Task: inverse folding
């Protein structure tokens, strides 16, 4: 999940600062055990998210999942340790999630990739190419929905033939079509001037 | 815009002992060129020769003075390529970032990239798609984004490989209008014969050879006659 466009003050802060602060704050939250302080941190994180002018519709589905997971965590911790400890843990995790959403939803995907390229630049020493890794990362995110679409098409087609529950009947065409997509995408990368060899930018 | 001629000289392309194209000799210097022919006739291979995606087994392809064998990188700047399935051509998750991708490959600085992205989107009337996630676009929108990503690189020639195959009538007509407006040379491989009506030249490819080369109506008549034979 990343920001396509966001005009808040958070979006104007350099991604390195945002992600660095997120890391430091997350570690800091683990050093706090007082539930009152964690409650304040949680309220501040809500305020931060609200002030970041993010598209709240994007948050609905992930927040529901998080609340369900944290609900389970809360009950288990409450039973195993004590309820105050469960409150502290849940507040800590929720605060971290909200901080992470504030950062990711106010940062463009391309900015995250550039940051990743900088952070991963030491891998050049061992012959790695951070540009290639960043491209692979962005293409993974780009093509997950495409592959899901292909999977649904294949499943529908096999369902029509009465083979919906046959894993082989779904897997084989899925793999073949995925390879075709990979082939065409490689050709498109070539046509658009992508050169994997030099790191000139 | 000065358009360098494309010279295909004595070109044969061989895959697995089979000649997909056989001894093709043509010079393309018109602004609107169509290529038609049956499936498997060699149209796509011919189109891919034009920007070096496919290299000739025998012979030479030159864009102006540049040979596709020796100047692949420069030729990618000169000749853009719009694929049949735009979904596989869009590389980045966000539209504006996808258009900037090719510009980054050209080595353009960030501010120049941003300017070109917004100008190209605006010229094609799709500025509203700038921040959309690529996978949420309709087929017609994806095809326009694919075109934008190519035009942003300012090529002198754009090759279209069956660009309207996956489009409905409305999007097909819209895309046809965009092709007509281009100041670049457009080389269109298509089964959609109506697109070719206003073109200056149409090649018919049969069994790996250019079997007809002339005006659109005569080429379409030749292709129809061949199809019925």
Result:
């Amino acid at each position: 999940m990343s920001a396509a466009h966001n005009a808040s003050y958070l979006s104007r802060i350099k991604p390195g600062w945002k992600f660095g602060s997120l890391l430091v704050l997350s570690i800091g939250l683990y050093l706090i055990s007082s539930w009152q302080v964690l409650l304040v941190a949680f309220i501040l994180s809500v305020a931060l998210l609200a002030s970041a002018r993010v598209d709240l519709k994007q948050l609905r589905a992930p927040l529901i999942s998080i609340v369900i997971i944290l609900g389970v965590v809360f009950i288990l911790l409450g039973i195993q340790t004590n309820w105050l400890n469960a409150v502290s843990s849940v507040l800590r995790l929720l605060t971290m999630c909200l901080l992470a959403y504030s950062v990711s939803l106010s940062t463009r995907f391309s900015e995250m990739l550039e940051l990743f390229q900088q952070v991963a630049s030491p891998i050049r020493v061992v012959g790695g190419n951070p540009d290639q890794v960043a491209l692979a990362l962005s293409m993974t995110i780009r093509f997950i929905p495409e592959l899901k679409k292909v999977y649904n098409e294949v499943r529908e087609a096999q369902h029509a033939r009465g083979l919906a529950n046959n894993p082989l009947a779904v897997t084989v065409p899925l793999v073949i079509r995925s390879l075709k997509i990979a082939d065409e995408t490689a050709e498109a990368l070539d046509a658009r001037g992508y050169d994997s060899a030099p790191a000139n930018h | 815009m000065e358009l360098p001629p494309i010279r295909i000289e004595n070109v044969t392309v061989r895959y697995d002992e089979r000649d997909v194209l056989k001894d093709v000799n043509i010079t393309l210097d018109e602004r609107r060129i169509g290529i038609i022919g049956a499936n498997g006739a060699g149209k796509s291979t011919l189109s891919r020769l034009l920007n070096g995606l496919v290299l000739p087994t025998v012979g030479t392809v030159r864009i102006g003075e540049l040979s596709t064998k020796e100047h692949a990188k420069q030729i990618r700047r000169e000749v853009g390529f719009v694929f049949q399935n735009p979904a596989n051509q869009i590389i980045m998750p966000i539209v504006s970032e996808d258009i900037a991708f090719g510009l980054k490959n050209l080595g353009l600085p960030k501010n120049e990239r941003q300017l070109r992205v917004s100008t190209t989107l605006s010229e094609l009337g799709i500025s509203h798609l700038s921040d959309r996630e690529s996978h949420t676009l309709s087929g017609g929108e994806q095809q326009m984004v694919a075109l934008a990503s190519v035009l942003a690189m300012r090529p002198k020639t754009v090759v279209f490989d069956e660009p309207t195959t996956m489009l409905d009538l409305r999007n097909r007509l819209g895309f046809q209008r965009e092709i007509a407006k281009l100041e670049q040379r457009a080389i269109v491989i298509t089964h959609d014969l109506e697109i070719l009506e206003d073109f200056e030249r149409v090649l018919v490819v049969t069994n790996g050879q250019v079997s007809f080369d002339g005006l659109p109506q005569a080429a379409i008549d030749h292709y129809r006659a061949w199809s019925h034979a």
Q: What stands out?
A: Chain B has a mean pLDDT of 92.
